[in-house]
Design a protein that fits this description.
Order of helices and strands: HHHHHHHHHHHHHH
Distance between the termini: 71 Å
Largest sheet: none
Radius of gyration: 21 Å
Length: 249
């Protein structure tokens, strides 16, 4: 098994011809800047032999239109085609598929895709950390909190500059009853993203769990002030209602 893993890690992607590489870059640019045209370009290129490059580009275009199921499907097919080609890009495609499945709310499919990405051994640095974070998010949705804790702790080794990682860690720690860790990681998230209302909402949640009503209200009010009208601000407003005086009988 070890020999097989080392062999897989040694496989290098086959560099496409210059014209092929240029079309790939053009397709990704369209997928980002003009997703509708990106879909047209990627579909045409796939028909004409663009293989997994075209499918990944198509997935990117769908993702930029928030068409997450279509995006996840294309990333999944790109990963399968890349595996047939023995191309290490398959790991990245599986990670993208997992992220897209998370956006659809399908935690089981997200976990399966991220398992494949991580099992390949071909993700490194930030990509590795982000894939572990995404699998942790899927595991939380599946109710596997201890396994999620393990993935988040490993993700800290390579994705420590991502405030979402520290926010996810803080939220999970609070849910698991580890308030000191929750508070410490929320502070790190706030240091990286001081204007993020989601982080401030979690700081308020942790304060409330500690019985600090004053601190909780202050954090929630700041969340509303930082990003009014956002989903996080709406959550903060809902949390603050518990402190309102009840209507007269």
């Amino acid at each position: 098994m070890i020999a097989l893993l080392l062999a897989a890690q040694a496989v290098e992607p086959v560099a496409p011809r210059q014209a092929f590489a240029e079309r790939y870059e053009r397709c990704l640019d369209l997928a980002t800047d003009d997703p509708g045209r990106g879909i047209e370009e990627a579909t045409d290129w796939r028909i004409k032999g663009g293989r997994h490059y075209a499918r990944q580009c198509l997935g990117m275009a769908y993702a930029n239109l928030n068409r997450w199921t279509a995006a996840a499907t294309e990333f999944t097919e790109a990963a399968r085609e890349a595996e047939v080609d023995r191309d290490v890009r398959a790991a990245r495609y599986w990670a993208q598929a997992g992220n897209a499945w998370l956006a659809t709310g399908d935690a089981a499919k997200a976990r399966a895709a991220l398992d494949a990405a991580l099992a390949s051994g071909n993700l490194v640095a930030l990509q590795l950390g982000e894939a572990r974070l995404d699998r942790a998010r899927a595991l939380v949705l599946l109710g596997e909190l201890a396994a999620a804790r393990t993935d988040i702790d490993k993700a800290k080794e390579t994705a420590a500059k991502d405030p979402l990682l520290w926010l996810a860690s803080a939220t999970l720690a609070r849910r698991m009853g580890d308030l000191p860790l929750a508070k410490a990681d929320a502070i790190k998230a706030h240091g990286l993203a001081p204007d993020d209302a989601s982080v401030l909402v979690e700081i308020g949640n942790i304060a409330a769990s500690e019985g600090d009503a004053t601190g909780a209200q202050a954090a929630w009010r700041e969340a509303i002030a930082r990003q009014p009208g956002s989903d996080a601000a709406n959550s903060a407003e809902a949390a603050l209602r518990q402190f309102e005086d009840p209507p007269p009988p």
